[in-house]
Amino acid sequence: MNNFLKREFLLFFNIPKNIYLPLSIYSIVFVIFIALGLPDDFKFANVFISSFITVFIISESSYKDDFESGAIEQMLFEDKNLINYVLSKLLIQAVFVFFPMLIIGLLFSGLPQNLSLAQFSVSYLACLLTLSPFFNLGSIVSIRKNNSLNALIIIPFLVPFIFLIEGLFISGQWNPNFYFLMAYFVFSIVFINLLVVEVIKIQIR
Q: What percent of the chain has pLDDT over 70?
């Protein structure tokens, strides 16, 4: 696990666009929504629409370079644990992309009235960490076809998640939405990431 974390850490710093590009996209989309002058009721909807778009765009390149360079094939040849590779990539993204997105969102829109800083931070980061494996799965499915059409197949599976976010952050219903979010989070981190690993193996064959 440590070797994978070190690898992803160095990749992020050696290729700065992995950090500044998603944050730039998030900020630009966010500012566009602010410039539209939408009512306050849509303020936190803007945060999550911007987040959805950014995580989707990140997912399109998460595994592409490693796939094209043969790095993933080499990992399989050396019988390395791919789940550690997938989780390391997600953790580094959380530290260098998702956490700064949280800070930017707080600076632009503040906190919902019904949530404390800790509640909002934990919930928001859990949302991003839940979304990312779903979109990564779609990206891996379509990686050989070099398009994002198959990634769009994942979106219907996120419809309940979208209603959950609306209830938690916009309608202000902490219970039971937070617990449903945690269930979705565990499902995504465990099951969807395992599915990502299996699809990677299929794509390499």
A: 90
Alpha-carbon distance of 162 to 36, in angstroms, equals 22
Helices marked H in 113-192 — which ranges? Answer: 117-141, 159-165, 174-187
Taking the C-alpha atoms of residue 29 and residue 161, their distance in angstroms, rounded to an integer, is 21
Among 92, 89, 99, 90, which residue's Cα sits nearest to residue 51?
99
User: Cα separation of 51 and 104, whole Å?
Assistant: 11
| pTM, entire model | 0.88
Residue type, 165: I
Domain ranges of the chain: 2-204
Three-state SS across 98-112?
HHHHHHHHHHHHCCC
- Which phi and psi angles does 81 have, rounded to 5°? -80, 105
